[in-house]
Amino acid sequence: MKKIFWWGLGLLALVAIIFVITYKSPTQTSDNQTTVQKEIVRVGYREHGAYWPLFVGIENNFFAKENIIVEPIPFNSTNQMMEALIAGQIDASLGGVNTTLLATLESKSPSEFKLFTLFTESEDKYFSALLVRADSNINELSDLADKKVSTQPGSTTKFLFKKTVNDKIAPAEAVLEQMDANLQLGSLESGQTDAAIVFEPTATIGIDKGIARILKQSLWSSDIMTNCPVGGSVLGKKFLETKPELAKKFIKATNEAIIFGKKDNIAIQKAIAMYLPITINLAKKMPILDNHLLDEIDVNQLQSFFDLLLKEGEINKPVNAEDILLPIYAESK
């Protein structure tokens, strides 16, 4: 009996020794190197094509390579998304936050965010379009007098409606109807509205389904400013102040995603199809927007746009374009 006892005790001791020799803490790898802790970044987005840098970054592992776990959070309104960013409920938004809203927020409460990429709209690479029904007899802007035109909710789309439609047909006027983007095509098809100012991919979807045709495209570029700086990527003040090193890695990953996407449009189309309610074949019909990194942004053009907003009464006091941009030294390449 004693032999069995001592034999069992020896076996337990041997097991304990083996455990101590082979045990590695959860923070160590097989070659005894400490693993890097993954960090979460909460990123807001809208369901339109301007947010492709976020989609490409996730689907092609640019954030994962920096040990970043992106938590994508969809919003129905850019205003709501920016309220969440300023409150610290999200950390960033990538690709499509409209610059009209950014100028408005900066004029009211400076330095709550920083812009670090920018997309522009040109005549051939359109983001915005004015749609009418495919069988509509509306062929000129003047035909919109007393007609109902839908836009997404918000002050920015109201401004675009004014410049694109009512300023062009004055003294006649069209009637503005604001509604969620996912209701615009249905409203147009049913005849509840006569036209719609939309953002991609709504125009592409409407044309593909035979619901709509384009009366006019590239509204920002044609009616506001050539190669208009329409929107971009922003980081929240709280995120930048509390997690500066993580912010640098996040910027680096975003930049790499944009550079990659510019070289591989198919990657953009595949990523868009993962996050927007369209197929890959439909995504291939969408125009790919020009995105500019921080050191590629035309600051003078952005300043001219902000000055125009002041002149038009969209903002109440001047906004300095340089103040809204992320300091160049903070960019990690």
Write the CATH homologous superfamily of the largest domain. Answer: Periplasmic binding protein-like II
Tell me which CATH architecture of the largest domain applies here: 3-Layer(aba) Sandwich
Number of domains: 2
Predict the CATH topology of the largest domain: D-Maltodextrin-Binding Protein, domain 2
Number of helices: 14
The percentage of residues in β strands lies in 15-25%
Q: Which strands sit side by side, in order, in the main sheet?
A: 2-1-3-10-4-11
How would you spell out the order of helices and strands? Answer: HEHEHEHEEEHEHEHEHEHHHHEHH
**CA-to-CA gap between the ends?**
71 Å
Total strands: 11
| Structural class label | alpha/beta
Q: Provide the CATH top-level class of the largest domain.
A: Alpha Beta
Backbone CA Rg: 26 Å
Largest sheet: 6 strands, mixed
Rounded mean pLDDT score: 88
- Extract low-pLDDT stretches: 1-32, 329-333
- Coarse morphology: globular
Summarize the structure in words.
With 333 residues, the chain is an alpha/beta fold. The chain folds into 2 domains: 189 residues, 3-Layer(aba) Sandwich (D-Maltodextrin-Binding Protein, domain 2); 90 residues, 3-Layer(aba) Sandwich (D-Maltodextrin-Binding Protein, domain 2), CATH 3.40.190. Helices cover 43% and strands 20% of the residues. The protein is built from 14 helices and 11 strands. The strands form 2 sheets. The chain has a 6-stranded mixed β-sheet, with helices on both faces. It has a 5-stranded mixed β-sheet with strand order 7-6-8-5-9, with helices on both faces. The N terminus and C terminus are likely disordered.
